[in-house]
Specification:
117 residues; 6 helices; mainly alpha; 3-stranded antiparallel sheet; ArsR-like_HTH; DNA binding; DNA-binding; elongated; Arc Repressor Mutant, subunit A
């Protein structure tokens, strides 16, 4: 494949803007990994449920998502590994919440709040 310097550019400022917007390619790879995790309907269901509950334990999340506790635990392990959720312990119960504001914003695009919510 020819290098960028060997190629004829139609609109160099647009190419520069595209490259500036792309930024660090490692970050793009990281987000591609996150999106691949989000592509699973069960995991996305869990994230939406967590978002609306604010924080929730595995057994309650399993009921809300219509999944088994084991399936929820396995999915949460993957979601934590990809930095999509965090957990904290209160006594013997572990509660999960979305990891950051970016996840909240993404969920709003998947399932936007209505004015009644």
């Amino acid at each position: 494949m020819p290098s960028a310097s060997d190629r004829r550019l139609i609109d160099p400022p647009r190419v520069e803007a595209a490259l500036a917007g792309l930024g660090d390619r490692e970050t793009v790879q990281e987000w591609a990994g996150r999106f691949s995790v989000l592509a699973d309907p069960s995991r996305l269901t869990l994230l939406v449920c967590i978002h609306y509950a604010r924080e929730i334990c595995v057994s309650d999340l399993a009921v809300a998502a219509g999944m088994s506790d084991t399936a929820v635990s396995q999915a949460l392990r993957l979601l934590r590994a990809h930095g999509l959720v965090t957990a904290h312990r209160s006594g013997r119960v572990v509660y999960y919440r979305l990891a950051d504001e970016t996840m909240h914003e993404l969920i709003h695009h998947v399932r936007p709040h209505t004015t009644a919510e």
